[in-house]
């Protein structure tokens, strides 16, 4: 355990408080710095227990405040997905922010703020950035995970250069600063101060809802819902409940009860707030086996992911991105066309085919939304997405779950057909990318790294060799050169590309907290005149067996089958 060596009280000359005496500023010294605060794919994620260690959260926050540009005199956006630890973290960050000379923090009632809504607030208020308290789709509660996401002034996840600098700072940290102050009440909107720092508690839903109204034609969506088109949304007891209620049940006139699990809970009701067929099984069952709804959707813990379902129909996220791109003109915000599109490397090439037809650029980036930021800022792309249930546009700098739901409803409102019809018509025009992701969760770390390193060392010899009844045309560890700032990112996943355009990608997750998670991404293309109605697991069977044999997945993970199949 790390003990506080001594506390030092400082004369607080910077502090000008509305209170009669300014708050006391303190510095807390660390015995030894923490050496495990390296942010992963999106922020720092650890178990709640790790975050509850003395000084652990404070250390990471200090590293952020010492590294993020513009803290002195700047405005910060602060909130989270409502998970266990949210309130305590907001209190700590406010008192540390005051000690570091922030001039203003905008936080939200009950600290509820979705990741895309935070991104919007950063941009709308010209803030220096934001801190979002979330471990996204990871489970919450005292026995679950907690997380801290750091966003920059553009509203997007901090670039690697910044997260590396934060990590370096945390490893060398000797002390942190905070002030002693009363806990700011978050139950209702209001204006407060801690010393010279203003704390504005605002409704975290309002600005976001206004933004959505600018992007989409709510009247038309309302007309669709009014006709015989019942919709259902599962907020998974996470952050999107209040947003979805205001949007769907409020503005769009869907009946009360449309939003299920709509009250954010500290432990997400014991569930796993990950909108996929495994963890949102109840919703999946309603749509895939029931007949009551025409459209269903769910979002993850912090509201940036989305799953779209139609009656008897699951929309693969890679297809979803392609379909949004192909139909973008139906939404007022994108009626003038798209500047370009981007997808993460493991995402299927379905959107590439659309981009080609639209004659626009299509970029392939590493996994993680931070890599889209430069392309969005430079106006090179309008839409982007990931296979992991993430889609978004230039309206914010994060993926945006409810935005995707509204976009789908807009398409359905224009086309007046079923989700399944949208899918089959898309495939018959562009061909179909059969796609699946197999996740092996919580594998012993050595086994996962052993498997990965072995496969990586085999790659050079695979080129030209047979694999899954095809020939390997390229095999490498993906690296990315940012077309905007020229920065290079190496080692982003092992790719086995086959001569017919099919491929297998293998990565280790950068968001898991228990052991290691192996992700295997599988893809093959069927042209528009081919067989478009297979079960993806069947269409991909050769690739599934091929990679298992090559990488010895079952043997080395000790698992007969993946934990999650998407
Ligand atoms: C996963 C997804 C990735 C996504 C990231 C953050 O990362 O694969 O596409 O950007 O989560 O999403 P990884 O490293 O575990 O594969 V979220 O909604 O958890 O912030
Ligand atoms: Co998320």
Automatic annotation (TrEMBL):
Per the record, the GO terms for biological process are: glucose metabolic process
Offer an example of a GO molecular function term for this protein.
metal ion binding
Q: Which reaction does it catalyse?
A: alpha-D-glucose 1-phosphate = alpha-D-glucose 6-phosphate
Q: Which SUPFAM superfamilies match?
A: Phosphoglucomutase, C-terminal domain, Phosphoglucomutase, first 3 domains
The organism's place on the tree of life at top rank: Bacteria
The GO cellular component terms are: cytosol
Q: Where is this region: Disordered?
A: 13-48
Q: Which residues form a coiled coil?
A: none
Kindly give the NCBIfam families that the UniProt entry links to this protein. PRK07564.1-1
Asked if Lyase is a keyword of the record, the answer is no
EC number annotated for this UniProt entry: 5.4.2.2
Species name:
Prochlorococcus marinus (strain MIT 9313)
Q: Which family does it belong to?
A: Belongs to the phosphohexose mutase family.
Q: What is this protein called?
A: phosphoglucomutase (alpha-D-glucose-1,6-bisphosphate-dependent)
Keyword Magnesium applies: yes
């Amino acid at each position: 355990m790390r003990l506080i060596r001594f506390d030092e009280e400082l004369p607080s000359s910077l502090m000008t408080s509305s209170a009669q005496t300014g708050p006391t500023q303190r510095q807390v010294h660390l015995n030894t710095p923490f050496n495990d605060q390296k942010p992963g794919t999106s922020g720092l994620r650890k178990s709640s227990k790790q975050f509850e260690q003395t000084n652990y959260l404070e250390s990471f926050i200090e590293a952020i405040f010492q590294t993020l540009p513009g803290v002195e005199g700047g405005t910060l956006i602060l909130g989270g997905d409502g998970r266990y630890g949210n309130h305590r973290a907001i209190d700590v960050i406010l008192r540390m922010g005051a000690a570091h000379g922030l001039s203003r923090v905008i936080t939200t009632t009950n600290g509820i703020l979705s990741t895309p809504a935070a991104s919007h607030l950063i941009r709308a208020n010209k803030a220096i950035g934001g801190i979002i308290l979330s471990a996204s789709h990871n489970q919450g509660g005292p026995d679950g995970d907690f997380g801290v996401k750091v966003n920059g002034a553009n509203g997007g996840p901090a670039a690697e250069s910044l997260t590396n600098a934060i990590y370096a700072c945390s490893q060398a940290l000797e002390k942190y600063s905070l002030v002693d102050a009363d806990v700011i009440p978050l139950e209702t909107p209001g204006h407060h101060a801690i010393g010279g720092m203003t704390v504005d508690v605002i409704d975290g839903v309002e600005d976001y809802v206004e933004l959505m109204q600018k992007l989409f034609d709510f009247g038309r969506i309302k007309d669709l819902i009014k006709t015989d088109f019942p919709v259902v949304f599962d907020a998974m007891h996470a952050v999107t409940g209040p947003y979805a209620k205001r949007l769907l049940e409020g503005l769009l006139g869907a009946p009360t009860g449309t939003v299920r699990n709509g009250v954010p809970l500290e432990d997400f009701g014991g569930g796993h707030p990950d909108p996929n067929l495994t963890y949102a099984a109840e919703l999946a069952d309603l749509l895939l086996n029931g007949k009551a709804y025409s459209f269903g959707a769910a979002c993850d813990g912090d509201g940036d992911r989305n799953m779209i379902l139609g009656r008897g129909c699951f929309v693969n996220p890679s297809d979803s991105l392609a379909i949004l791109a192909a139909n973008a003109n139906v939404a007022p915000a994108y009626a003038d066309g798209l500047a370009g599109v981007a997808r993460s490397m493991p995402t299927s090439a379905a959107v590439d085919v659309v981009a080609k037809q639209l004659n626009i650029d299509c970029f392939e980036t590493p996994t993680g939304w931070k890599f889209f930021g430069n392309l969005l800022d430079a106006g090179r792309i309008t839409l982007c997405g990931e296979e992991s249930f993430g889609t978004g546009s230039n309206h914010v700098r994060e993926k945006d779950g409810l935005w995707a739901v509204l976009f789908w409803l807009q398409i359905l409102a224009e086309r007046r057909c079923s989700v399944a019809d949208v899918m089959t018509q898309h495939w018959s025009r562009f061909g179909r990318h059969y796609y699946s992701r197999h996740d092996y969760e919580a594998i012993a770390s050595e086994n996962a790294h052993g498997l990965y390193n072995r496969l990586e060392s085999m790659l050079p010899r695979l080129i030209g060799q047979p694999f899954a009844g095809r020939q390997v045309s390229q095999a490498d560890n993906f690296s990315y050169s940012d077309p905007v700032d020229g920065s290079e990112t190496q080692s982003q996943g092992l790719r086995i590309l086959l001569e017919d355009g099919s491929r297998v990608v293998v990565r280790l997750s950068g968001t898991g907290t228990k052991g290691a998670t192996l992700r295997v991404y599988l893809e093959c293309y069927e042209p528009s005149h081919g067989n478009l109605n297979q079960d993806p697991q069947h269409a991909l069977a050769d690739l599934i067996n091929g990679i298992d044999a090559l990488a010895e997945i079952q043997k080395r993970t000790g698992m007969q089958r993946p934990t999650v199949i998407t």
